[in-house]
Amino acid sequence: MTKIYDKVALIGLGLIASSMFWAMKRGGLAGTVSGYARSQETRDTARKIGLCDHVCDSAIEAVKDADLVVLCVPVGAMEAVAQDISAHLKPGATISDVGSVKRSVIDTVGPFVPQGVHFIPAHPLAGTEHSGPEAGFASLFDNRWSLLVPVEGTEPQALAKLRAFWEGMGANVDEMDADHHDLVLAVTSHAPHLIAYTMVGVADDLRRVTDSEVIKYSAAGFRDFTRIAASDPTMWRDVFLTNKDATLEILGRFTEELFDLQRAIRTGDGDKLHAYFTRTRAIRRGIIQAGQDTDAPDFGRTKVSRE
Amino acid sequence: MTKIYDKVALIGLGLIASSMFWAMKRGGLAGTVSGYARSQETRDTARKIGLCDHVCDSAIEAVKDADLVVLCVPVGAMEAVAQDISAHLKPGATISDVGSVKRSVIDTVGPFVPQGVHFIPAHPLAGTEHSGPEAGFASLFDNRWSLLVPVEGTEPQALAKLRAFWEGMGANVDEMDADHHDLVLAVTSHAPHLIAYTMVGVADDLRRVTDSEVIKYSAAGFRDFTRIAASDPTMWRDVFLTNKDATLEILGRFTEELFDLQRAIRTGDGDKLHAYFTRTRAIRRGIIQAGQDTDAPDFGRTKVSRE
Asked: Which residues of A touch B184 (CB under 8 A)?
């Protein structure tokens, strides 16, 4: 139990913020935690389940005296929040965020960070398909990566403190520059989400195969796509609008490759397909060895026993 | 415990055949089960782990006196096996299979089914990303669907027996005609697999993002694709080569839709993206309500507790 910040303020109380609260509590990382959410309903839920020591009725009240302020709202909503709280940040405080895109956050939030306040964008690579204040849990960040994206001139001590904070919540921490972050995430997250959304949309839209057939027979592979295609629509709309270039670049590469494999199917080039499918197995092995996924069949959904 | 067939022969001893053996044993569905696999190594493994009552050194020996013969080899290998065993099938026996494509199996195996033998193609929609004789387990088919694709003139009694057999292994059973089966599976299985293989291949092939980054940061969504992209390469090569038309049709629809969403990203049409992402959530809910997937966050990979 090592306290790192006296007071932490969470702006936005969805899956990530609520998981941060429970993880901070588990690790004893903060003296007190205040929270704010725009919707009255979310604030009521937070109060009911004991999420945050103080749930405030304005962002300005929540950030008062806070040593760390974390913006946990969709990327498209960050600029307005930053503008709102800017004049109320404590000198010496750190302002950070958990947005999935970093260049856009730097460009839109950065201008509102006053002199004497540290600005260190961050992105925990963790989440589930569930959203809202009740979806959070303390172990969400355990053994997941949190990427810190310090801007030029970041003070090393403030950076070290934020790193210790994320490590205290169970995460591994890497530093990365904003543009590389946005490209890496386009590959490991943004393009896969758009592809999953598309495949689910196509299945939903076919006349010749009914929705009920798609649902009944989904265990043949399709259902794996539906999990990430059930993620929060507002968050993901903002991700694609703010990481446009990198996402479109990766989708372009994806389409090129898909066309190549479609041609192999059309021409009956079995050797090419077999070689391709063999190569992709290695990446899965790497992910399991790195502790980033389970080796249990079917993600462990199925209880496995011979008898 | 209801015995349905006196003797069952499994040709091919991979994930599906081995799961069938353990499920038959669990349900007491067969008097004896013989098995054959082309590779000596697989036969040795089967003997070591007690898979099948008799592991035979030829398919001809395995099917001798069998009341039910199930072809559990990749779709592309079925014709040769059928030719091989054709003259050795017992009059009145049923020959079936577990292939993922049905029109092709009917066209290639059908001609080798002698008069007096029932031919009832089948397809259990179950599997994991693991393969081989040691990957099987008794509960693989529990609450999954198995599709029977009877050809014209199938005797009702033989069909009812095969239905009872699959139900005895835990499956729900539907009947479907071959062409509709191949289209439904193109949507729920074949196109999703090709898309997953492609996305994993793209990620593996980028110069500007290293494999090690892809692996470390895969929990942001990408890893969900890697499970099905780790499936057996031979089986999947054969699926695409034998269900070419339906797969290419669905991939065509997918690409059309993907381009439409890419254009929405490029033009900044947030409303369109939001509406699309909201719609796809409903399919996920349907799948969970139908008992075809878990509602636990992250497929239940993560242990969830607030403290």
From this structure: 209, 213-214, 217
